[in-house]
Amino acid sequence: MAQRTPEGMAVDVAVDEEVLAVWKKFRTKQKTTSAMIMKLNKEGSKIVLDELMEDTTCEDVAEELPESVPRYLIFSYRLERDDDVGRITFPLAFVYYMPENCNDRQRMLYSRPTKLLSDTLGLSKIFSCVDAEDLTSEWLQKEILSTKTR
């Protein structure tokens, strides 16, 4: 049975139970930068965990990304605040990686369930990246700080 977005649109893609189980632990982990890399299964019917990277950097994650196949990335990013206290926070960031050279079929398959995944995980802001070389710690920090939704 198709899942539905909050707007009532049918989406024939489901989020795998493993993704949800890993997400429960991932979202409260607050020691170092970590990343969840997700993809669609071969049938295009389920969002599955591709890799979980702990104590990593954006640059390390970028090295793991395929050159022509999209991925969904969730970062728990260690951010040192520029305040008097020097607070350290771990905002969650959803990055939709859609390489420029991926084919039209992949673009369609991956773009449709993006909102379903963000809604399921409770992430309201989605950052887009089209080139793995642009996925740097500096870029992600700038994106996180430039948004009002935390």
UniProtKB/TrEMBL annotation:
GO molecular function, one term: actin binding
Family annotation (Pfam families): Cofilin_ADF
GO biological process: actin filament debranching; negative regulation of Arp2/3 complex-mediated actin nucleation
Cellular component, GO annotation: cortical actin cytoskeleton
InterPro entries: ADF-H, ADF-H/Gelsolin-like_dom_sf, GMF
SMART domains found in the cross-reference section: ADF (SM00102)
PROSITE patterns named among the record's database cross-references: ADF_H
Domain ADF-H, first and last residues per copy: 10-145
Family per record: Belongs to the actin-binding proteins ADF family. GMF subfamily.
Name this protein carries in UniProt: ADF-H domain-containing protein
Phylogenetic classification of the source organism: Eukaryota, Eukaryota incertae sedis
